Fold:
Amino acid sequence: MGRRANASTLVVLLLLVVGAGSILPGQDRAQAQALYRSAIASLESGDYAGADEKIRRMLADFPGIPQALNVAGIIADLRGQPERSIEYFERAVSLRDDFIDARSNLARLYAKTDRLQEARRQFEQVLRWNPAHLPSLKGLASLLFDVGDIEAALENTVRALRQAPEDPELLLHLARTQFKLGREAEAAVTTRRLRRLFVHDGEGLHALGLMLLDSGRYSDAVTILREAAERQGRDPEIVSSMGIGYGLGRKVNQAISSFRESIRLRSRDPQGYLHLALAYGMQGRFDEAAAELRRVLELDQGSTDAAHHLGVSLYKQGLETEAKAYFEQVLRREPDRVETVYYQALIRFQEGDYPGSLSLLSRVLDLQEDHISAHYKAAQVNAKLGRRTEAQRLFREFKRLELQQERSRKERFHIYAGIGDEFSVFGSK
Amino acid sequence: MLLWTWLPAAPVQFADITAEAGIRFRHFNGATGEFYFPEIAGPGAAFLDYDQDGDQDIFLVNGSSLPEPKPATDPNSQLYRNDGNGRFTEVTAQSGIDLRGLFGMGVAAGDHDNDGDPDLYVTGYLRSVLLVNNGDGTFIDGTDSAGVRNPGRWATSAGFFDFDRDGLLDLFVCNYVVFDMEVNPPCSGGGFRSYCHPSAFEGDPNVLYRNNGDGTFSDASEVSGIAGARGKSLGVAFADYDQDGWMDLFVANDTVADFLFHNQGDGTFQEVGFVAGVAYNEDGHARAGMGVDFGDYDGDGRLDLIVTNFTSEGNALFRNTGDGSFAEVTRHTGIRKNSFLKVGFGVRFFDYDNDTDLDVMAVNGHVIPRIAEYRDDTSFPQVKLLYDNREGKFRERSRESGDCFLVRDVGRGAAFADIDNDGDVDALVTNNAGGVQLLRNDGGNRSNWLLLKLVGTKSNRDGIGSRLTAHIGDRVVVTQVQRAASYLSSQDPRVHIGLGRSSAVDRLRVDWPSGRTQVLQALPANRIVTIQEAVAAAGSRRLSDLPASRIGTREETAQHDP
Structure:
């Protein structure tokens, strides 16, 4: 849905073009509007850096124009600079308290940067002023979904749909929310409606497929993504999404084929190799996974995901020394990456460095107190060190978490349902 | 001079000789579409010399109709006599064995009454049966008089061992889960009706029957501490892993922690799986354990452990570290290769190429019949796997070891024996709702060997639990007498030792369960030697002076001079 959001953003921007100069003194208006239009043109052509440069120039001369600050915030966001974007939006709303669009954008950026309470306050403020403000209704619905208040998310989505009954983004959100609430029949109706809506729209079908993936409807997702691929002429992103659908749906051989195809279509995309590696890992083919992960690192040296998974793949082959080097590389960049710290602890254990292992396991438990494997291993290490009481305490905690995990598994999945159990919204098997 | 790393010119082959041997058994699992859980678990098989003619006969366990058995029409379990000429003759009717109506699972063989012939304990769903060997080729049902019916419970693997070292074989019975056919839950997988995940049922504690020496057993489960651990048990193997003189046991549990019961020597056991590092995988996740065996794969004189598991878990190998614990070495040894997407059941350490180290065979088959319809990288029938041990690293060599390894079946039990007494170990594989495969080892005996049959006098007659230490040049091979191993199955009790190019075992030490030790010197290769437990103090005797009558099938009796 990223591209779709960008398109609607541009519409908003174009509307702003007219208004931006209207509050300027006559002499400056033309100059400001020229810069403004030029920035928008750069933005339209995908030249975010150019757009950024122009809007900054405008703001250097005219720093107090809320509309321009709003546009600058949007551009910064598109350039992947959320903190700078927030700064612009904050300045915009500080200059004009009732600037609804800027406030809504600010809320969206807060949500994006996990400042969820602030985001929620801003969305609610906008909706108090304008209960029909569509972007805010959408944003709040999405935020409520993310924080787990699914009923409220549904309510907001339905409110938004009253404003825009055919809005595909809202319909996708509606279906996602209905799936989450277990309203399978309603979700199926919405999904089928979306499929009809997107019948000639490969990008829309891709979005629908991704929603189905998110909702755990893997085989349905693959059905839709296949259609999307047909419409879009084997777009590598769609093929890759198909691979994810196959993989999550336990058709790992097909996932591997899709990821290979995606790599053929876009050989410089590190994500393709990463996905392929993870699929190999699902089949215990850790040597092949490691080879793909090395390719990821050739293309993107800074990928901590690849370095971590490469460490894991090497570890699973009994190559601890090599694995250790990659884990260290990850921890230099992301010292709090829990699983990496955990694997380092396992390696120390293998090396017989029990105090070192224990220290790392303590760190894991500081970062994630319910890390079940760390409890188990820490109990084992304490037992090795002859600390019987502490070993017993940790083992009891491990058993408690194990039981909790089992209960949670039974709650999430019907006790009698097995793997691969899912109904199809497009017809039964 | 030893050259035990000698490589044979061509790989040893396993040939499927089931049909030509005359074995026509087909497992009946009673399946009607109701997916009663027991349908999918069996069957097992046993090698035993029931008629004491010197070769290993075969017993195959069968199921019955569910939910109601139909004794009149259900197929029987079957006993096959080894005729010694490559053929087996079905002798079930003559033997008096009639288990029709029993939903049989597995089998344990052992001479529980020390009368010189092996008896059979057939485990089953809702009841189990003790078949006492009369010594004349017939068996009699001695279940109730012996008190080993295990009523109402779903027994799986079982094994005879002498836990209290009184010279009598006791009986350990694995119980799986509490399953009631009247409340058979409607489970599904991939949108299809299927067998339930074990988490749908409560586990059932195991049972230890202590042999009273008068043909009866007492239930010692509570007093021994065995009943205190509730698992979902499928496989069992016995070994004195810590060399304290007392037989311990490992129990493979399905989806819950595996058990290692340490024999404390006072009639009780302590479950030490966690402390010993064998209860969980290294991340603390319980696996779905099925088959199990003990063996010294790395030649350090300590008995290691192998366990077969479910898909995405693979085979697991634990190295005995000698301090009462084990280190999982699965990742370092190659034993998981190609097992990751399999569901492993029967498994056994055995030296198939007689090169002195222990190789591994694992038998596989899924438990969800329609698995291939919603997973594209595994299947219901699966191939068997053969791993060749090269200095502690395993190489999967199935494809080059015979067409039988290309055939996919729903494998369950696996039993191993030298059926033709030619010095290499053959295999018998059982399949759920299918036939069996008798796999003859062709070429293993290109290297030298020794087959040792132990006869206890003060110890139990089978010599189960005896530890054997063979010095072959500068190599030491440690093994033990054990019938229970693998899954639902019972093994040739004779100890097979591959000698590579060595022409003799220089020195053989036997530590009997009674505490007696016996040392034999210079045992020449390529013969079957019977070792009777000495009644007097330890001494030693040379066998190499004895004349060879027939290379490859020769049997000698070694006994200490009084």
